Amino acid sequence: MIRLFHMPTIRSLRVIWLMEEMGIAYELVPVSLGPHGLEHPDFARYNPLNTVPTLVDGDVVMTESGAMVSYLMTKYGPTELALAADHRDYPAYLHWQWFCEASLAEHIVTYRLHTEFLPPDHRSETARDQASKDIQKRLQEAERRFGAQSWAVADQVTAADIFLGHACHAVVGLREGPALPQNLQRYYQRLMDRPAFARATRC
Ligand SMILES: N[C@@H](CCC(=O)N[C@@H](CS)C(=O)NCC(=O)O)C(=O)O
C-alpha cells in the first residue's frame, strides 16, 4: 500500500485530497518536528532531504508533491481530475499548478517561518510583512483570473483545484495573515463542502 510521510498543514494535503478523490488506499505516516528538523526512524533512508510529503509506492519514492499528483493520476487513473492536453483549458490547467507551487508557495512558507516555525528571536517582522505583501499580490492576481467561476478550469474539479485549493487552505491557516479575496473565499467554501477535501484537511 502507498505510504505517505506527512505532517498536518503542509503540501501533503494535495496528495491526500487527490487520493481521497480517486479512492486510492494509503497509509499516512506522521512525521514530527524535533530539535534537528523532521524526525521518523524510516524517513532518512527514503528522503535524505528530510522533507514532507514523501511518498513510497513499492519501489517508487517521490519527494515532490506536484510530481506525486501527476504520478498518481497516471498510474491509478484514468480520472476526470486529469485534463487532456487537447482540452481548450489545458494551458490554464497547467498555469494554476505551476502558479501555486512556483509563485505562491514560497511566500506562504516564508510567512509561516516568521510567524510559527523559527524560534521567536529569529523571526523578522520585515520578512513577515514582505511575505504578506507578496502573498496578497498573488492572491489578487489569482482572484482576477479566477473570476466568479466555480472551479479553476473546465467547469469541473481537476488537478488545478488540487493546487489552488491547497493554496487557499494554507492562506486561511496563516496566523493573522492576509484574507482570501471574495471569489476565492466562496471557492474555498465550496471546497469545504466537498467530502474528500474536508476529510483531507482533517488529516
Ligand atoms: N516542493 C516540495 C516542497 C517540500 C518541502 O520543502 N516541504 C517542507 C514542508 S512544506 C519541509 O518538509 N520542510 C522541512 C525541511 O526543509 O527540512 C513539495 O512540493 O513537496
Structure write-up:
The protein has 203 residues and is α+β, with helices and mostly antiparallel strands. It has helices spanning 12-22, 43-46, 65-76, 90-117, 125-146, 159-172, 182-192, 195-201; strands at residues 2-6, 26-30, 32-34, 37-39, 54-57, 60-62. The protein has two domains: 2-76, Glutaredoxin (3-Layer(aba) Sandwich), CATH 3.40.30; 90-198, Glutathione S-transferase Yfyf (Class Pi), Chain A, domain 2. The strands form two sheets. A four-stranded mixed beta sheet has the order 2-1-5-6, with helices on one face. A hairpin with a 2-residue loop joins strand 3 and strand 4. The longest helix has 28 residues, at 90-117. Bound molecules: glutathione (GSH). Glutathione is lined by residues 10-11, 37-38, 50-53, 64-66. Glutathione (GSH) binds next to strand 4 and helix 3.
